[in-house]
Amino acid sequence: MPARLLLALPDGTVTEHPRLLAAVRSGDDVLRAPGASRPVPLPAGATLSRLPGRRPLGIDPDSGSIVCLDEVRAGGRRVVPDAVAAVFPPGWTRAWLPAIRTCDAAPELPQWAWTAAGWDGGFVAHALRTDRRTHWSPEQPLDELERRVESRRHESPLVEQLARCALEYRCFTARNIFHEKDEGALPSSSGCNARCVGCISAQDEGGVEASHERIRRAPGAAELAELGARHLERARESAPGRAMVSFGQGCEGEPLTRAKVLAEAIRRMRVRTARGSVNVNTNGSRPEALKLLADAGLDACRISLNSACADLYEAYYRPIGYGFAHVRESLRVAREAGLYVAVNLLVFPGVTDRAGEVDALVSLLGEFRVHQLQTRNLAMDPDRFMSVARGRGAGGPAVGVANLVRRVRRELPGIVVGNYARGLRERRGWNSRPAT
Fold this sequence. Notes:
Blueprint: E1 4-8, E2 14-22, E3 24-26, E4 29-31, E5 40-41, E6 47-51, E7 54-59, E8 66-68, E9 72-74, E10 77-79, E11 83-87, E12 92-94, E13 97-98, E14 100-102, E15 115-119, E16 123-125, E17 127-129, H1 142-152, H2 157-167, H3 172-179, E18 183-186, H4 221-234, E19 244-247, H5 259-272, E20 277-282, H6 287-296, E21 300-305, H7 310-317, H8 324-336, E22 340-347, H9 355-367, E23 372-377, H10 382-389, H11 401-411, E24 416-418
Helix pairs in contact: 1-2, 2-3, 4-5, 5-6, 6-8
């Protein structure tokens, strides 16, 4: 029996509908999930949330028609329900969006990756386990993290920023700085040369509140190098080779806009220690800046995309002084410099998995011999993103996120598909020598 529709009552109670089946959304289309797409029980770390101002859409099991649930009877009276969605932890990529009808006065949804959910003997939702490694799971209790943060937060303004990220934003890489393990965050830039529609650290005035407050003071090379070198020297590794520091975090802008400072920081780190990896998470806007970092000792980069098609990419990123051609050039520069190259794909069901979009993505990954594809749920109001994506990018029917992942793995067997950065000894097909 397919999963049943979930709804939220005005008092916050989440319950299943006695008759209607759960529908899913793909882009603008509402449908019954294909038989091969089975929902999974909510894993640890997943949560359910009500979507205010959104009515749940279900499927009549007899006629197969889509039904909008405008009111239900609860506690002896008629009430207006809200739709329900799931939010998944890292390591999962959502397969479908929640099926909803947005009311005229509905507030814009906050920046989470809303996922289709239902009831099948328990709460279930449509997502793929795309990275089974567990080293991102917190291993220390919160009070231990708080103790570590308080013992170090006054070391520098940069550490103070990371203290906020670790406790308030629950950033794993910020927490790793205080736990002294695996990949640690090095926020480096307060400015950006893109105005991403779904940016989590800066939003247009009057719009949805950004989920992070951007770092206000950009740290200097000495401050970055001190924290970075300390982490590389001391970091415990959940597996050999996972010690890493990364520029380009959720609380900052674009690190390539400060390439000279970052290059100096990398050189200073490498004077102190040769241990571990130095990575940058970037929009790939400045190929010459990426080359400068590679020459200084950078060994890995992750370049973010929402599409391999220029018009959809630029409509979402709203770049300032660069375009998609610069991103392609950065991929070429990174490979020629011998970096381990990952593409961070912002996934949105019904757009990213259009047949033409998948064709363009596979072509891009193959052309530049990318080492890793990191699937990352695009966290924003679905209606807002669709207002950007309609009529842009490559077309064709949506094939499903699961089929996108399968095709990449089938046609590009050398690529790693996952959600987390790979440490030095986890990098399949990389030998730190320039590609030829």
